[in-house]
Design goal:
alpha/beta, two-stranded antiparallel sheet, seven-stranded mixed beta sheet, 9 strands, Alkaline Phosphatase, subunit A
Length: about 270
């Protein structure tokens, strides 16, 4: 069976990825523009735990055909193993199905909204929220590939998420759901998330920094490719996109804009 490494670059929008130099990810094949099922982290990752990838949005087909094709791909990803699609029911859990065919399933995540107490952690053999928001390098150090037990690694990377590995100095404080709930009752904390912070020069700087973060991640993916066995299947994508001031939007979540849903997608065994 193939080892499988599923890498989610949190918040990485498609055009940021395409603007970056990614010689290591390019070894997997040509990246596609796909579309996330959700505009923010938690529901998008829930779709991933169901075994569903960002979709290509084909026209003139029934949705059932798209889902069917998506699930069939798990045969190739596992190396032709007899994945029983009925085993996805009733839980609709990819980690559970992979465990049944002999995988050890391990998740390492960066976003607190994905912590081990959430439903997304269910059915993984190991599940860890990294202590550092930007610790893809630490994830790689912890990963092991024993010859007698194929592994499925699910990695959520914070490097491409706001503040894009920048110092918090002179940046607006932007909280996700996890941070908002922690700050509820603190009016001063909540009030910092205002449109007055959306300076065009800052938005441009942040977008350019996300591109650099993709390049940083690509370098580490090269390190991981060197560490992983030759039969390792890589999936590299994002959970959603990001807005950098376009049409008055910033960030993601309660945003209905195409840039919030456009994500890169590439998979395969490195050549």
């Amino acid at each position: 069976m193939n080892n499988i490494i599923f890498i989610v670059m949190d918040s990485c929008r498609y055009d940021s990825f395409m603007a970056a130099a990614t010689p290591n990810i390019d070894r997997l094949g040509e990246a596609q523009k796909r579309y996330s099922y959700a505009s923010w982290t938690a529901p998008s990752h829930y779709a991933f735990t169901m075994g569903m990838m960002p979709h290509s949005s084909p026209k003139n087909v029934y949705a059932s055909e798209v889902y069917k094709e998506d699930y069939i791909q798990w045969k190739a990803r596992t190396g032709g193993e007899a994945v029983e699609f009925k085993d996805f029911l009733p839980e609709l859990s990819l980690p559970r199905v992979l465990s049944k065919v002999g995988y050890r399933t391990v998740a390492k995540v960066s976003m607190p909204v994905l912590n081990k107490y959430t439903p997304i952690s269910k059915h993984f053999d190991e599940y860890k929220l990294m202590a550092n928001h930007n610790d893809f390098a630490g994830m790689i150090e912890e990963m092991e590939f024993p010859e007698d037990e194929p592994h499925y690694y699910f990695l959520n990377l914070g490097e491409t998420h706001y503040p894009y590995m920048l110092s918090a100095e002179n940046l607006p404080h932007v909280s996700g759901v996890h941070g908002v709930l922690k700050a509820m009752g603190n009016d001063a904390e909540v009030a910092t998330n205002t449109a007055q912070s959306f300076d065009p020069a800052l938005m441009k700087r942040l977008h350019e920094q996300q591109v650099r973060c993709v390049e940083y991640v690509d370098g580490l993916i090269g390190t991981l490719m060197a560490k992983a066995p030759p039969n390792t299947w890589f999936i590299v994508t994002a959970d959603h996109g990001e807005l950098f001031g376009e049409e008055g939007y910033f960030g993601h979540g309660p945003v209905m804009h195409e840039k919030c849903f456009e994500v890169p997608f590439v998979e395969g065994i490195p050549v």
